[in-house]
Amino acid sequence: MTDCKWDFSGKVALVTGGSRGIGRACVQQLARAGAEVIFTYASHEQAAYELVEECYRNGSAKITAIRANFREQADRERLAERIAQQSHLHFLIHNAGLLSDAPLYKMTDTQWEEVLQVNLDSFFGIAKAAIRPLSRSQGSIVSVASVAGMAGGIGQVNYSAAKAGMIGFTKALAREVGGLGIRVNAVAPGYVETEMVSAIPEEKKKKRYAANALKRIGQADEIAAAILFLLSEQASFITAQVLVADGGLL
Question: Which residues form the Ketoreductase domain (predicted)?
Answer without folding.
Answer: 11-190
